[in-house]
């Protein structure tokens, strides 16, 4: 029997990190997202995963930077309001380690990506809801997804790095 698990946004976060001026890292979050897992196996080894992120919910704790990230220079949220992920496989590597593969779409560009996933296990919360926890990480090239804006410093180094690290800390609630 297939079980459906919905993301619990109150106990989840979608974070990204990118180099700034090559010397430090800037982190941000997407605050609105939704996702679902469908699986028949208790260890999720046959899981199908879908995820949608509201691009406009980007938050780097700096209003001006967030507005720039929403602009056509980056996410162009007026024309591309969502980032989406659809899994193609969720392979158990051993223990609690998995490899999640699928298609990520950002700004109309779809690319195959893979996430390293740690399955934290399942537990019942104080309300009797069955929960499952995961941490997933991936690295992508922002330019491959059409996020091409950049500038150079006086010394000739880039302002924003190309590699973006994605960190997802997610809890899912089993649906009855």
UniProtKB/TrEMBL annotation:
Organism in which the protein naturally occurs: Olivibacter oleidegradans
Coiled coil, from the record: none
InterPro entries (alphabetical): Lipid/polyisoprenoid-bd_YceI, TTHA0802/YceI-like_sf
Annotated signal peptide: none
PANTHER family xref list: PROTEIN YCEI (PTHR34406:SF1)
Protein name: YceI family protein
One Pfam family in the UniProt entry: YceI
Record lineage: Bacteria, Pseudomonadati, Bacteroidota, Sphingobacteriia, Sphingobacteriales
Ranges for domain Lipid/polyisoprenoid-binding YceI-like: 4-173
SUPFAM superfamilies per UniProt: YceI-like
